[in-house]
Specification:
Length: 519
């Protein structure tokens, strides 16, 4: 980046005079030191050539964005400190310097001074205060191998993180975008890994390196409050060096987030199906642009950044028999980058003319199942109900009465009675074989201990074919009622005393063992 001496700077100012804001009758100055903010971002004290920065505004949130002026970067701090801030307008500045009069956008850009990441809370007030999430990000970014931001802005409905860099020319726009996307992805992973809800990362904001961003100290008509900022430190980054740091991470597989939502899973499956379609049949002329559009949109839906989704589309395009030019592909997908289309399977099948045989081969069907929005809550309820039923039936198998169980598990008597009636003949649906053996062994030990304590020797019937006599176990066999023999019955064996369990115990605990809870 070329440096100018004092005479060259004065000549430039003469050729590009600045029209300062007019003083209004009820003039409202920005809240906060915006001069320091802009002087710091655009490095007004550095000797590099300075261009023009676009200032835009719109009435409320639904108005048309209009250009307010093109201000020399080194004088933007002084200009913004004197501007009039209306509570009916939102004010923005361009994140890049331009070489002449025009508007914001990539055309005419020649220099960049900062990297931006946007954390949105547009859905409402976030559960964690912004003062709590910022220290977490500041602490975790160095552990992830990334620098901490220089400036933290509070726009009213989100947070902007700003990293200052040494001024670089527009020819390095790809490097600026690459590092911006890497920083956005790192912050996104931190938020997801710590389970912080209410915040989302606007990746398109980071990718649009020459777009507009809110001027701090101005009024946010949507949030009905003024934007503010904090300066954390003033050390600038060397962009090529930081790029070498994040380069090993930028080509991670698909750059997908750790925890995928339902829509991201659907998008990933849809992208895989489209890639399979290209394998089983060639993409003919007339379908190439539609195929790339649907593939790009599916990868967006899967959580892939626009940059990597475009790279994937270009790779697939090169495999066509007659590929499109890279310029044509980028132009066709430019609108999809901004709007993020979510096509249905029926639309994809119709546009690409996919036959029923091809649908079965690639796993793509137009009959979409209705999504149950309450399935997560239903799953949690079912888990709680199963734990409750297991507790009730465990106490029941141990010999407790229904009223005693109700007091123990803190549920109504009728609830316990209903659960017992429902599961007493099908306990194998709640407990495995080893659990049933353990429960019945516990019951037998409790009975033996109770008899030893009472010091009474008598016959205690446990079931219709199993009796307890003193401290010896016998089985009562109707066929041989006159003769008592040592226990070898399958019922006693199932209680953990040896042998194999009967078939009836596998299908559900037999009534001879647990049919009576008073045993």
């Amino acid at each position: 980046m070329s440096c100018w001496n004092q005479k060259e700077k004065e000549k430039f100012r003469t050729e590009h005079p600045v029209i300062m804001p007019r003083l209004q009758v009820n003039h409202r100055y920005p809240r906060g030191d915006v001069k320091t903010y802009f002087d710091l971002i655009f490095a007004s004290d550095h000797p590099e050539y300075k261009g023009l920065v676009s200032i835009a505004g719109r009435k409320k949130t639904a108005g048309e964005m209009r250009l307010v002026g093109m201000i020399p970067a080194e004088q933007l701090g002084n200009w913004s400190s004197k501007m009039h801030v209306s509570r009916q307008y939102d004010y923005y500045y361009c994140k890049a310097q331009h070489s002449g009069n025009g508007t914001w956008g990539s055309e005419g850009v020649f220099a960049y001074n900062a990297l931006y990441v946007d954390i949105d809370t547009h859905s409402g007030r976030a559960p964690k205060a912004e003062q709590q999430i910022i220290p977490l990000i500041m602490e975790m970014l160095p552990e992830e191998g990334y620098p901490t931001p220089n400036i933290v802005e509070y726009s009213g409905r989100g947070i902007h993180l700003v990293w200052l860099i040494e001024q670089v020319a527009a020819t390095l726009h790809w490097m600026v975008r690459e590092v911006s996307n890497a920083l956005a992805l790192s912050v996104k992973n931190i938020i997801l890994n710590y389970g912080i809800t209410g915040y989302t990362i606007d990746t398109s904001y980071s990718s649009n390196i020459s777009g507009l961003t809110r001027i701090p100290g101005t009024y946010n008509t949507a949030a009905k409050g003024y934007a503010a900022y904090d300066i954390c430190h003033t050390q600038r980054l060397d962009l090529p060096k930081i790029y070498d740091t994040v380069a090993p991470n930028r080509n991670l597989k698909k750059q997908l987030v750790t925890a995928m939502s339902d829509s991201q899973i659907i998008g990933q499956e849809r992208a895989d199906s489209l890639l399979k379609l290209h394998q089983i049949r060639p993409i003919e002329q007339g379908y190439r642009d539609l195929y790339l559009l649907h593939l790009f949109s599916a990868q967006q839906m899967a959580g892939m950044e626009n940059t990597y989704a475009l790279e994937q589309a270009l790779k697939v395009n090169r495999t066509f028999d007659q590929p499109l030019s890279e310029h044509e592909v980028s132009r066709n997908l430019s609108t999809a980058m901004r709007k993020t289309y979510h096509f249905t399977n029926a639309k994809i099948i119709s546009d690409l003319g996919i036959t029923e045989d091809e649908q079965r081969a690639i796993g793509l069907t137009s009959t979409s199942q209705r999504r149950d929005s309450n399935r997560a809550r239903k799953a949690r309820t079912a888990t709680k109900r199963r734990h409750r039923n297991r507790s009730i039936m465990r106490y029941y198998l141990l010999g407790m009465s229904i009223s005693e169980i109700a007091k123990q598990v803190h549920h109504a008597y009728n609830t316990v009675k209903r659960v017992v009636a429902q599961h007493k003949d099908h306990v194998s649906t709640l407990f495995c074989r080893k659990e049933l053996q353990h429960i019945m062994c516990q019951r037998v030990r409790a009975l033996i201990l109770a008899l030893h304590k009472s010091k009474v020797r008598y016959n205690l019937p446990i079931s219709r074919n199993f009796i307890y006599r003193s401290t010896k176990y016998y089985a009562y066999t109707p066929m041989r009622a006159a003769k008592e023999q040592p226990v070898v019955s399958s019922t006693v064996n199932h209680l953990g005393l040896g042998g194999s369990p009967p078939c009836s115990m596998v299908n559900g605990l037999h009534s001879s063992c647990v049919g009576s809870h008073a045993g």
